[in-house]
Batch of 2 targets.
Target 1
Amino acid sequence: MPRLELSGPLEQRLAELYARMEEAYDKVARALDFGCTGCPDNCCDSYFQHHTYAEWLYLHHGLRQLAVAKQQEITERATEYLRRCAKAEAQGLRPQVMCPLNEEGLCILYKHRLLVCRTHGVPAKMRRPDGRVLNFPGCFRCQQLVDGKREQGLEIPVMPRTALLMELVDIENELLCFRRHLYPKVNLTIAEMIVRGEPALF
Ligand code: SF4
Ligand code: SF4
């Protein structure tokens, strides 16, 4: 089956978009004096799905740069991740399993991590295509910080996500030759993306 290709220029666009996300995130984090250092939690065990072929491919570009033995180890961890998630879901629970890319608390594919990994933490705002505005309060630790600042009457900075997400949609459209509607929707965890391998054309 032919494979989808994230070409050089498109890959570069995604890398630049990720850099802009990081910049926008850091700006808000700095203004709030917020960071993950010292947090008793690690958000890499949160259960999230991801929704683009572009990010799926970019993740695999990162994986391919690792030694083969490390790739195999990650695939084994991803398989175990899926087994544990299925078990939790069969018990009616939301899975909470450490991401197969996390080693000793750190992301081993930091440069290739996905949008959700890059935006979770600080307060954010997004306008949906139907005009509805969604507000994200940030993680529990950031919310505590925000509450303290509100009590002092300080302005709360918010990360604007709309333009960033629209650019990701544009990249996805170009990757799929503006025929996105013909492809199955992506709704996969990172572990599923790893175990399935790179996405193929149908
Ligand atoms: S995003 Fe928030 S909850 Fe998650 S590790 Fe960072 S400080 Fe902790
Ligand atoms: S890809 Fe990296 S940052 Fe994202 S959940 Fe996995 S380990 Fe954490």
Target 2
Amino acid sequence: MKPVRQVVIAGAGVTGLLTAVECALAGHRVTVLDRGAIPNPASSSFDHHRAIRAFAWGDPATTRRKVAARRRWLELETTLGARFYRRVGIVSAWPCAEADAVLAEAAAAGLPVSAVEPEKLPHLGFPADSVGVLEADAGVLLAERVLSAAVKWLSAHPAVTLRPWSKVDSVHSGRIELDGGESLGADHVLIAAGPWTPDLADLPAVLHRQTMVYLRPPDDLVRWWENAPGGGRLGADGRAWLLPPGDGTLLKISSDAVCREVESTDSAEESQDPWLEKLLGASIVSDVDRYTVVATKSCHYLSDPDAGDALLTRVGPAVWSRSACGGTGFTTAPLAARQFAETLTEEIA
Ligand SMILES: Cc1cc2nc3c(=O)[nH]c(=O)nc-3n(C[C@H](O)[C@H](O)[C@H](O)COP(=O)(O)OP(=O)(O)OC[C@H]3O[C@@H](n4cnc5c(N)ncnc54)[C@H](O)[C@@H]3O)c2cc1C
């Protein structure tokens, strides 16, 4: 009989939930704690959509890793019994002088890519003198649907306990203290608290806040947008991105130009209006005045100079953490989940 471990996971965003799935599949007992509801609308994973693309220019190792992540996402659709991947493609704008080299590198990595003239996508705002490189297998994960599917699967699993409204106060090897005084024993702990991870683990993390704007297209463009790809490196400065509407989601725009370092995740006092104006003025979407602004939201992520793009960091003898990372944290969550489950297997052996 395989040895069974008691795993406790602090945080029920995409990292915590997918790690719970992997650990349960490997035969372990799992408890997932979140300080809010599960899924938690206040988590950074809870959103209409997240982009998933494989190509990383000049970085074949990252490209390979993201190809593996996408494969795992497709398997997860089967495991969790839900459809949440929209393979709409993602087009990135590249200076005309660089596009051939980009296409060649992506093709060498085995990715189906093609050049697209900006005129073919007239509602996306390309920088001057650029051309689109379309990664056909890339697309959009319907993030809220992912979280709901994982929660449904975990709720039905006999070895899994989901505990909403359970705030973790501190984490020690073999033990987790909850707000209110309860103590839980654990063979292995994963801190998956996203941008709140520094509350529970001492990491040299830098906190970032980014504003996103949700738009409803005008009636005459609804059909066009339903078949549109996502876009990257867009806008007049080539720093913006958009995720297309479809399957009940809105069009979402944002830009690296509205990403800022902050001290705290509390954004209640910050007006989003200046960031909204900046995004609407960034030429990400053509004729943006014809679109209805439905919502503006800010979201946080951490960067960790020590961990870099590592999927997991060991912070104690049986304690691991995953700091949420910006552009690829959702994409690579299945890889972090699998790595954690494999670590248990190795340690048992
Ligand atoms: C603007 C923006 C755009 C992004 N776009 C993309 C994208 O297109 N593609 C992509 O791959 N990635 C993207 N990301 C990154 C991705 O969204 C995150 O990396 C990912 O969602 C993080 O998931 P997580 O589960 O690690 O953290 P979270 O989803 O934040 O979950 C953490 C959970 O921990 C809980 N928690 C916190 N503290 C405690 C505590 N003390 N006790 C108990 N529970 C606690 C919280 O309530 C929360 O539910 C983006 C990020 C941002 C900010």
